[in-house]
Amino acid sequence: MEGANETLNVTVQAIQLLTQVYTFCYQHLKEANIQLPAPDQIFSVTTSTISYLLSHSPPFIQQLYSILSDSVKESNFMTIFLLLVIAYMIYCTVLATFRWVYRLLFGFVRFSFLIAVVASLVYVVQQYMAGAALFPTSSSTENRYGSRTF
Question: Is 135 helix (H, G, I), strand (E, B) or coil?
Fold first, then answer.
């Protein structure tokens, strides 16, 4: 039972440490005439925001939250380790999805630019081979300065 209390105490200590850091910053910035919200306001807004998000989230997130909160109460090393592995797998999946979408869009733009360059080159070569107005040939024997060449 000692291990479960220590794990729960680590979470509580982390929250207390964050509270102490914010209170320290709040007091010193208040002396410098920089206003921040009071720590009790931050606590109430954070608590209400988290509860609102959890109550309006999809059912699988609520179920995941209940599993996580139960596992913290009966915490042991393997449960925490597995939760970290699962969280890391979810993070990797989301990150890979965003990278895939970015590469897909960037590849499409790059491929479109390549196709435009190739199409432009084909058009220029076609016009050159056809002798179109794009590459006029001089029918006169005069050069640019008016002298004749033979």
Answer: coil
